[in-house]
Amino acid sequence: MTRKQRRLTMIAGALAVLAVAAALVLNAMRSSIMFFTTPGKIAEQHIAPGTKFRLGGLVEQGSLVRGDQLKVNFEVTDGSAKVPVAFQGILPDLFREGQGVISEGSLDSSGVFHADTVLAKHDETYMPKAVADELKKEGHWKDDYGSASKSKYGKTSAADAPGAVR
Amino acid sequence: MIAESGHYALVLALGLALIQSFVPVIGARVKDPALMNMSRSTAIAQFVFVLLSFGALILLHVLSDFSVVNVYENSHSLKPLIYKITGVWGNHEGSMLLWVFILSLFGALVAIFGVNLPLSLRAHVLAVQAWIATAFYLFILLTSNPFLRIANPPLEGRDLNPILQDPGLAVHPPMLYLGYVGFSISFSFAIAALIEGRIDAAWARWVRPWTLMAWIFLTLGIAMGSYWAYYELGWGGWWFWDPVENASLMPWLAGTALLHSAVVMEKREALKIWTVLLAILTFSLSLLGTFLVRSGVLTSVHAFATDPRRGVFILMILCVFIGGSLSFYAWRAASLKQGGLFAPISREGALVLNNLLLTTACATVFIGTLYPLALEVVTGERISVGAPFFNLTFAPLFLPLLLAVPFGPLLAWKRGDLVGAAQRLMVAGVVALVTIAIVWAWQRGGSAFAPLAIGLAMFVILGAAVDIAERVKLFRAPFATSWSRATGLPRSTWGTAFAHAGLGIALIGIVCESTWNIEHIATMRLNDTAQLGSYSATFDGMTSRQGPNYREDIATFTIRQGGALVGMMTPSKRSFTTRGMSTTEAALMTRGVSQLYISLGAADPNGSITARIYYKPLVLLIWFGPVLMAFGGMLSLSDRRLRVGAPKPARPKLSGLAQPAE
Predict the structure, then answer these.
(1) CA atoms B388, B393, B398, B404: torsion sign
(2) Does the interface ipTM go beyond 0.90?
(3) Which of A64, B128, B503, B538 could be disulfide-bonded to B188 (CB atoms 3.0-4.6 Å)?
(4) A18, A35, A123 member nearest B383 (Cβ)
(5) pTM confidence score
(6) Which of the residues in chain B have pLDDT under 50?
(7) Could you give phi then psi for residue B210, rounded to 5 degrees?
(8) Which of B321, B88, B316, B48 is nearest to B184 (CA)?
């Protein structure tokens, strides 16, 4: 093989791998990405039952009901609308009424959100960024939600905490 | 006074870094050895001043001086001493100080051990190091000063985030940073080579040990972080594809590729331009990781409230260094001479394939991590890219890589014999197929994924063994001959074999844990028993105790296997009063390389408790694999040809003898 042929072989190989990778990425993008939304937007977005997405908001005060076999029901609100959420499992340590929460799952035909995973905020000063932005936009932001995040130094940073907290 | 001294020392280090940024470069221009040599003294002095500064911050934390904001925010007088020390880097300001401390440490190491580097190359390398250092000193001094005072000092601190009050914090961030920052050396060498317009095998021989060292630390750091997440978060998971984890995985993938392409460069003088690019990319990804983690742009559960000024500052550092180095590369790379022809089927070809797959896999992680951020900036739409995305992209790219790993070391340089290599791997292939059949029969049909993946892992492990067996002519020569050949093999060959085997071992752990993990989540009353495979766990009741800065509720479980008592497990929940937070302390019981894992949920007033109980078969292999990889790296590093600082110029009367065999 000449130098040119060798180089062409290499380039062809590289392009083949890149093409495969691009195909994999596009395929995965189509099937495994979850959108984030809030209770107020569910109606206008016409999300089909069974589509997985992330629901963010605050846990409605007084809505938490614990059932048998670790079943829990609560409502998530963004101030303009509420969505009932059903979950079976152990809630995170930091899950509390009136606090920010993100749940992953899908709606059923009756409009109940069945969560596979519930992620709570990480400490008393933290609210998931997506939730905070949304609440600010909707005008339901209360200063005390982010009181500590406004104080200049109240943070613990990410590299220091291992993994994600669920 | 301590805080002010620490602050002042850091300012002095900045001054030294500024001198070191320019003087050696001018020295190299005008060929003045005195000016070039100045970089050595400034690099060592920089290290001393950063050490003083870092020491000052540690002292402030140990003394619980709450007049310093950083100590007040992250410490508590009742906190155990070890967490007072580790808490220094358990926060933004302190961890950035650790970052520059390690940077200056590496700079000083180059200055001390680089005695045999060409004078101008060393001057350039240290100058580039000083550019990076200047940027980060400025970042700390202007936006993240850890030595700020409070006008009216409070009596008590706000305590460290309880999740971080764990021995893991003592090891994980320093290891990770040793890896991240260690790649700055390869970066500096790459830029220095571009400035000089000259690059050769000797260059690769200097770069390789530094890259290898950084890679070892990063490997251990990632593994350590994964194990920490596993036991501390109480979820039993060990990898979440969280952006923060991806931020450390990307430089690891690129660094692994760099490690392999540097071999080609050293032995065959090929792939020069590519190696330089990889060195730049690897450190760029380290910088990107620092940016993602430190600026708080991530919507991940990791990202806490942060100050946008910092994000913008790091983004500027990122743009200047990545953009600058890549433009410089585009401008100068053509001036480097290409060399070393090779056929596609050859050791070089195999290493190119390794590089191709590793960098592509790295690119998919990059897209999965940054796409959501880019989309939010552009359209405002929010999406989350989680584990399914990475399972669909990263895994299919890693499988062919694993399949190819055993072939690489068996191919000859320049032109290899694929059929010959396949014949030599026959034994490994047959054993792998038998393994697939056995595992498939054992799990009685079902999904073919686990048996195939375990077979692949066996192939990788045995492939590494075959490489060694071939080299020592095992069973083909008398045992004594094999033994003497084995002791005579270069340590880097053993290193390769161990590192590759580690990959296979980690894969076995990952597959077994994710396939045959038994999970039992339930509300348990007193004397309730949960059955997990052959093990049973009985809830014996709760006790409470007072820790130094927390209250702890401890549950006791008795573990039996087939009726025989095995031991007790005591998972607990700790409530930290200062921050009003609680943490879950999982209990682990190691049985061979498998583990039982119990973590607690909410306790009920009536004495019952919710518990997650897992049986995780072969789970420890997940971390044993990376440890073996790092061990292989260390063996390779101890190879006399690669030892940091070696090879020394041979003494005149020994010349010819002291030349190590290639």
Answers:
(1) positive
(2) no
(3) B128
(4) A35
(5) 0.89
(6) 299-306, 644-662
(7) -65, -45
(8) B321
